[in-house]
Every structure is written in structure tokens, then in C-alpha cells.
Amino acid sequence: MGQSPLELFAGFVRSIAGPRAVIDDPAERQAYCCDGLTSHRATPGLVFIPESREQLIAGVRELIRLGIPFVARGAGTGLSGGALPEVDGVLVVLARLRRIVEIDPIARIAVVEPGVVNLELSQATSGMGLLFAPDPSSQIACTIGGNVAENSGGAHCFKYGFTTNHVLGVELVAPTGELVWVGGDTLEAPGPDVRGLLIGSEGTLGIATTVVCRLLPVPEAKRTLVAYFHDVVAAGDAVGRLVHAGVVPAAIEMMDRGAIAACELATNAGLELDWGAALLVELDGPREEVDEGFKVVRAVLQEAQVGSVWEATTEEERERMWRARKAAFAAAGRVAPAYIVQDGVIPRTALPRVLAAMEDLAAESGLAILNVFHAGDGNLHPLVTYDPTVPGQAALAEEVAARILSLCLEEGGSLTGEHGIGVDKVCKMPEMFTPSDLATFGKLREALDPTGLANPGKLLPTPRLCGERPGVYAAHPLEEAGVAWRW
Amino acid sequence: MAVVSQADRDVFAPRSVEEASSLLAQLPPDQPVRVFGLGTNQEPRPTGAIRLETTQLAWVDLRSDDLTVAVGAGVRWSELARLLEGAGLRLVVDPVADGTVGAMVATSAHGLAVWRYGGIRDLLIGATLVLADGTIAHSGGHVIKNVAGYDLAKLACGARGRMALVAEVVLRAHPRARAMQGVRVELGPAELARLLELLLVERLDPVGLDWSGAERAALVVFEGSPRAVIAQAERLVGALERQGHRAHPLAEAELAEVARRWASFRDPVRGVVLRVAVRASRLLAWLQDRRVDPSRVVSYVGAGLADVVVAPEGLDHLLGVEAAAREAGARLEVRLAREVEEAFGVGRYDRFEHPLAARLQRALDPQRRFR
Fold it and tell me: Of A3, A177, A248, A419, which sits most exposed with the smallest number of CB within 10 A?
């Protein structure tokens, strides 16, 4: 009997990259069965872990030659199942491609391999007074390649924008096997913006082999405060006033009563618990600008009837504020046995209506919903809590989470602000896009991936995929093995 | 139905996305179409092409509290800017010349603030395109943050109308800057690297940096609160003077005057503007190449962009410029060509020579109707 395509591929990889580049043992493959979205699982047919750009390119070309579907994965921190493997395909893990190839402080760019961890890039450039601006919550683990795939944002994107504004060029191995550059190392490039199409395409249009990152100056000063309000509507009003005053904070994060309690319980940061909402506001930039802007912020908050203000006077205090905010997802685990993290976007002015509707949803369903969100840009992250031991509650939580997305769409918003479509929301796509929109997306995908091998089943709905029902929360295999956990 | 001009029966000016769609759907498959705004599209017009004017696609839906504006492709950029100004907002792109919103997208417009804010591509948060066969396709919308689906808006950026008709776009607006302040420093190309280093060392954060070879001067622009911009400008002037440079601050009106003068240099009545895009550190070396006459160059130095402006009589100079730029690894584009022979026109470098761009164009416009 002849060898299967996967066996042929494994042999090819061993011949060019040695045994460490392939994982075919079923138990070891199992560890890669999901990304951060643990409700969807599939054990990959094979795992390929290249150690060099050349191995990656040769491997992908061989996959294409053999007609094997492939899925790229960075650190596996994605929350939409964008790196969910194919059982009869190959998972291409980029985590060993961690070289920062070059830093050019005059041009303010860094050339990196796709497996470089987001935070490590900023750490490497900080001595030169530069940083990489996109800062998703997972920045201690997530990779630049993953950021490119998802067009990642973060808490500071109200001021600084998203990955698409900070990645100038990408070398990719296309699903046809061609090695091409899109964009370059300048802030503008001649011709249609193919780079803009590629960034955020969730690995469906190719795999990045090299990335040119734009670097910004490390802000000279940062000032941060937490402002407390009686309710989220009052806090939302304050956000509107801040924007009107011409201040562009680096971050405006909002937490509701439930989220404040959960974050405080998890971190003991010192948040006041007797308020209905809290805003974390941060200004950064040249010292004079921050000091002047902070005066405006304080004045605007007073006009907006702020209840109490906690201003960070030391870097330690500032870090504590952020630790509390960034712990929000994990902290939900302290107040509920399980939860679903939702990611939707609304026009900022729709905030009061959507929050009121979510309160109604919580009351109807009997499930608590905690709200943390990037208030400046209307990106909501409701945490729908439930108890998996109560029959039917997990399914109810799924339903509530889906209803929240529908609310976002009814307000002219989006299915996702930063987590991506992946497999998680692929069946909601027809709610947001018309058939001709989806057909156009399909044409573009087919133009670059005519054989449909790159991350199949993600981003665009298919009848097969959307006839199936997603699963509910389950522990990650690493959690089950006791080597990683959520808190 | 689309409107047929009385003056020219080959001119159509649809008043809505649906009319544009219907027009394109009814045309014979091999009928070439030239998208036309206020006449800034300089791609060679194919023989027998009908003219699809965007000027009737002229609506504005400003949502000032959401910091977004949806706008028809035919709206004049300067009119949109004035409308936003009235609402205390602005578009941070400051193109060197006026035109329709569609033209700004088609030419990937940008200006002095490109170093901080990028170009129009960085403000585009949504688009409605009409494909060659009349299909209407949307992406994005009135939300600043959105990663659902492919970003069609970006693909139309810089395509000079050859990918699809851009019927409407949604742009991100910013609060109006409370104050602006400039610093003018006299220096030649050899000293620009030191200026870039100095800005980093002094931890200053300007929104723009422009350099004019004709004036042998750089313009550094700050924006923010009134006191803060003055303080930053003073800090920079002090640091430059300590290094022996002649520098002086420019108040808002003076700054606007210099910016206008340098913008008009980039928009000559006659001649060619050749764009050289190359990593900033290599651009500095290219500026000192003996084949490059610095007096014809203006450059957004930090962004890695330089424009070489030559009159129709001086086109030969471009050959040396081009050779030096190629050696530096630059990409080239003719941004503008007026009263010059076609060989030096905007078709000199094929924007669709990139294999993926060409394939995407074929997918959206298989008959190559938009030429």
C-alpha cells in the first residue's frame, strides 16, 4: 500500500528539517486541537513546526503540491477558532520563527519573523525609544504573525489604530506557493493596497514569512486614572464629552459593576466596589501634552458628574489599574464556574441602548453578564456567565451570546472588533453581509487560493459548516493535563 | 436609471449606488469604462470607453458623536473637510490637491501628517464598491473597530479606479486639533538623519516632517493643546540650536503658509511628479546621490516618501533619478503628469504588475472593463 499524503509530507519535512519539525504522535497532536476558543476542537492530521523561513516556505509548497489543507498557528491565543486544525490536514506552527531580523531606528521599522511574540518586539526596541503599538490583552504570548492574521487591536487602538496601521509590509507564501511581498517598508506604497486586504484575512490568503513592523516613539509620559460613575450610561456620557473636548486618550476602558467586582476579587488592585461603572482613562505622549490634556480630562469628568476619581501617582499604581482591567476575562472565572467571552462592536452612541438591552437579556435568561469594553471605539466584550453543571445553561449562554451579536448588528455594528470570525462566528456572517458581499469575498479568496487549501472553513460560511452546531466550553487539553490554567 | 449627459451620450452620472450598479450590469461585457470625478484620473483613457462620472454620488452622513462619516464618492474633499470642521472634527489626511473623495481613495491620498496618521487608507473603515458586472459589495461600516470579513476598502485604495467603482466610503474622523505649531530648520540632506535621531532622543512626537530641497529646510509640525505645542516647538528649537542649526518656530498661520507652498510644489501646473518610496534610512542616502538634483525634491522623510518634480523640458533628469532609486530598492510611481509625453505619464509604471494585485483585479473585473 502506498503512503498517504500526510505520510509523504512527514517524510519530506524530516528530510529537510529533521525529526523535531514534525509531530505525528496522536497524543502530542492532541495538544494542538484548539486555540483559545476551546469549544471547537479537531486534532490535526500532522503538526509541522519549521525552524526557519526556508523550511516554512519549502513545507508549504510541498503541502500545496500534495493537495493537503493547512492551517497556520502562532501562539494559539486566538479566541475565534481561527487556528482550529483540520483533521486531515497539517497545522503549521510558527512559534519557532522568533527572530527579530533587523531594527532600523532611523526608518522606525523592525523586520521580524512571524513567530516573534508581540511584547518581545517592544521590549527589544524600547532601548531605542521605540515600540510596536498594537497591544492585545494576550501580548505576552501572541505572535506578530497572529496579529497580522487577525488585524489585532488592543486597549490603545483608539489612539494608535490596529495592526493594519502598524504593519507596513508582509512577505507571504501564497496558497499557490508563490513567495511575494505585499506593502513594503514605507508608510505609503504605490498600487492597490493588497497588504490591507491580507491583514485580517485570518490565514486564508497565505502565511506570513516575514513582517515589517512600524515602530512609534515610546511616549515620554503617561498618566492614568480610574473614574467611577453611578451607572454605565453616565460613564458613556463622560466618554462622549471627552471626545468632544478634543482629547484623544490612548485608552478609555469601561467596566460595569459586575466586572469591577470580579477584577478586584482577582487582583486586589484597589478598585472601589460601590459604583455602577468605572472608566480607566490613560493619556500618553510628550510630557507637556499629557499634563495639559490631563487637566482637560479632570475638568470634563467633573462636568460629567463623576462620583470618585483614583489617579495613579506612581508607575506601580498605574500598573495595578491595568492589571485589574486586563484580568477581566480571567477574573470572570472567580465569580462564575464558566463564561463565554463575546466580542462585538457598536457605534459608540448606541452604547446606552445596547447596554440596556443586555440588562434585559440577563434578566430574561437569569445569566449574569459582565461588561468590559474599549469604550472609545464601541468594542464590547460581554462575559456571559453560566454553570455547566446546570442542564441547559451552557446552551442558554450560547444563545444569549449570539443574541448580543445580533443586537450589535441591529445598531449597525460588527460581529467582531478584534477576535476575528474564525469558525466561531462564520455562520453569523450572512446576518452582517449580503449574499453579494459574501460572493465578492469568495471571489477574492478563490483568486488567491484557487484550490481552497489555506485555512478552509474559516471566515466565510459554507453550507456544511453552518449546518453543524458548535460545542460548548470545555477545558483545554493543557488545562486537563494540569500544565496550564485559567484564573 | 443613470443619467445620460446631453452634451455627450457616452457620459453617465449615476445618482445612487443602485443606478451605478444597474448601468454597469446593462453594459455589454466588453465595454470599457473610465471612472471620472473632477478630472484627476490621469490613467490613459482606453479607446471607446464610456465615462462614468461620480459627481452625482454626493451624499454625506456625518455621525459626529461616533467620529465617522459616510460619504458618496463624488463629494469634493474640501467641502467634506469644511462640513466636518463645523462639527469640531477633521479628516487627518491633508492631500496636496483637492478632488473628489473617490479620487482621494483611488490615488491613496496623504499629506504632511502621513508620519503620524498615515494616508486615507488608514482612515477608511468601510466602503461600498460596485464591481464591473454591477455587483454591489460592502465592507466595514460606521464603527471604528471592525475585523469581520475582508477589507475591500483597502483594495480600492491606490488602484486608480481599476479595481471597482468606489461608490461610497466610511471614514474615521478625529477631533479638531486644538492648536498647531511648526518649526522650520535649515538643513541639507546630509543632516536629515541627525534631525530624525534628535526627535527620538528628545522624545518629541511631531505629526509631520517635510523637507524641501529647493528651500534646504525641514518643517516639523506639532499638534495638541496650545501650551503643549509651543513647549514642544521651543524644546526642538533649543536642541537644534545647540547643534548649530538655524531653527525658528512657526505660528499656526505661518505654518499653514509654508505647508501650502510645499503642497503646491507637489502639484505643478505642468510637468511630472515622480514618487520614490523607499525605507527612510535608504532615502537619506538616495537624496545625496549625485544623480538626484535636491532642488527638485520634496520629501516626507520619516515616511520614506519623496517626490521629484520636473517640468516637461527636464524629463531627462528622471532617468538618473530612477536609476539611483532602483539601486536603493525604491518603488516608483508617477503621481501626476501634466503636459508631458505619454511615456512619462502615470502609466509609466504598471500598478498591477504585482502578481496578487493582477489576480485580484481579474477576479473582480474579468473583462478588464475598468481600465
Answer: A3
